[in-house]
User: Which sequence fits this backbone?
């Protein structure tokens, strides 16, 4: 796999500043792609270090109720993989250095054609792809297609991941490791796994890429806590919950921006305290 360099540059800058990155997840097309474009730009202005863009899919395996509702709204509006890639090409002009990662399932990729998908993503300015239902053992066709394009394949690890799986992810993955902090589907949680730091230490023993933690992060306090152990956090369901609570588009954007800014502030304050102790 080649690399666009945006993820590496972002993570390098975060390391230099001794802080953890904030990567919000948004469902593309909820309620339409015009809103998603405005939302991504707003989140970037509010402190997001990168954006994970979910492609709506009718039969998700990893998505909880909140993201499922968002996907259904997007699908009803006609959003699909092709239109999401086109949207990314449009926002890339304004967000030249921001890491943009697509999360989609394997079926839409196969339906589009693997080679076509990889080429179109690369041309649009996508930096990496997450495919929850594609384990590293079955990813060779996609990895092969990516060899000539600056596009990376991000794999997931979980509390139950074996040493063999961790090695495979390190060998074949790119960009970063997506660590699933909670077993089950996505969704904001009131508390985090008490053994999270132990699980991350196990991965850190042989990791070759930054680790971003997702699934379950909801509050600024949780974001600050996880940022002590990982190079970045991913927050999706809680962000969508905040957006859902407002009916008007401008109110949705304002609430989303305020929420992300609150997470960012908590993470930066936590980093400052850690630096003082260090």
Assistant:
């Amino acid at each position: 796999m080649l690399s666009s360099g945006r993820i590496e540059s972002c993570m390098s800058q975060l390391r230099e500043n001794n802080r953890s990155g904030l990567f919000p997840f948004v469902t593309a097309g909820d309620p339409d792609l015009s809103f998603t474009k405005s939302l991504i730009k707003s989140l970037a202005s509010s402190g997001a270090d990168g954006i994970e863009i979910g492609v709506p899919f009718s039969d998700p395996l990893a998505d909880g109720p909140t993201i499922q509702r968002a996907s259904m709204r997007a699908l009803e509006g006609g959003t699909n993989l092709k239109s999401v890639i086109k949207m990314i090409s449009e926002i890339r002009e304004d967000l030249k250095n921001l890491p943009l990662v697509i999360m989609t399932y394997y079926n839409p990729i196969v339906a589009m054609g693997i080679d076509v998908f990889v080429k179109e993503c690369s041309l649009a300015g996508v930096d990496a792809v997450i495919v929850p239902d594609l384990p590293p053992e079955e990813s060779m066709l996609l990895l092969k297609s990516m060899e000539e394009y600056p596009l990376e394949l991000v794999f997931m690890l979980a509390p139950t991941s074996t040493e063999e799986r961790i090695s495979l992810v390190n060998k074949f993955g790119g960009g970063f490791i997506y660590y699933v902090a909670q077993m089950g589907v996505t969704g904001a949680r009131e508390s985090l796994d008490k053994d999270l730091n132990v699980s991350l230490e196990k991965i850190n023993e042989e990791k070759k890429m930054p680790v971003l933690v997702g699934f379950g992060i909801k509050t600024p306090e949780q974001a600050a806590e996880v940022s002590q152990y990982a190079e970045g956090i991913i927050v999706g369901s809680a962000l969508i919950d905040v957006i859902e609570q407002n009916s008007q588009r401008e109110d949705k954007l304002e609430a989303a921006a305020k929420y992300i800014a609150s997470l960012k502030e908590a993470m930066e304050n936590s980093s400052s305290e850690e630096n003082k102790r260090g």
Summary: The first strand starts at residue 21 and ends at 27. The CA atoms of residues 85 and 121 lie 6 Å apart. The two ends are 37 Å apart (CA to CA). The chain has one domain: 6-277.
